[in-house]
Design brief:
The chain is α+β, with helices and mostly antiparallel strands. It contains 4 helices and 10 strands. It has a single domain, classed as Glutaredoxin. The chain has a 5-stranded mixed β-sheet. The protein has a 3-stranded antiparallel β-sheet with strand order 1-2-8. A two-stranded antiparallel ribbon has the order 3-4.
């Protein structure tokens, strides 16, 4: 498995990411995550524009804000897109978070089973005492091609919401 040393930082400390660094034009890699207690693969997601918002943990301030901001901004695109928040949080914690914060436009995906999303999309952080995913955004078009990628260089920072939403709207047509 490919490893990318010093790919991102967390509060200034360099971290290694496991998996490839994807780029615009790449075919979106397959993955298997948990959606609730059911497995979900990329192939099982709808053939429409898809947003994958990757966060370390929903129970942290930046991750919470990122998920809530995308949820709010996507309200007007409801059936044109499919939107997912991916983390290593357990499905039970994800469900609790969505209920407490009235998140309805983002589907949560837990990568806790085997970290296949993190390894396939190059967001799994190596070397921490607790496995976490690095903050990133991916937009995948209806044909399965990546049209937008952002690996946020500092894990504790916000992604570029405007650029990600613009890419999603373009992919949605």
């Amino acid at each position: 498995m490919e490893k990318r040393a010093n790919a991102v930082t967390f509060k200034g400390a360099p971290l290694t990411l496991v998996g490839p660094q994807l780029k615009v034009g790449d075919k979106a890699p397959e993955f298997t995550c948990l959606s609730g207690l059911e497995t979900l693969t990329l192939a099982q997601t709808p053939a429409k524009a898809r947003l994958f918002s990757v966060v370390p943990s929903l129970d942290t301030p930046v991750c919470s804000e990122q998920t809530r901001k995308f949820d709010k901004e996507l309200a007007g695109l409801k059936d044109k897109v499919a939107s997912y928040t991916v983390s290593l949080d357990l499905p039970f914690a994800q469900k609790r978070f969505c209920g407490e914060h009235s998140v309805t436009n983002m589907t949560t995906l837990s990568d806790v089973h085997n970290q296949s999303f993190g390894k396939s999309y190059g967001t799994l952080i190596e070397g921490l005492p607790l496995s976490l995913l690095s903050r990133a955004i991916f937009v995948v078009d209806k044909g399965g091609k990546i049209t937008y990628v952002e690996y946020v260089p500092e894990v504790a920072s916000h992604p570029n919401y405007d650029a990600a939403l613009a890419a999603l709207k373009t992919a949605a047509g």
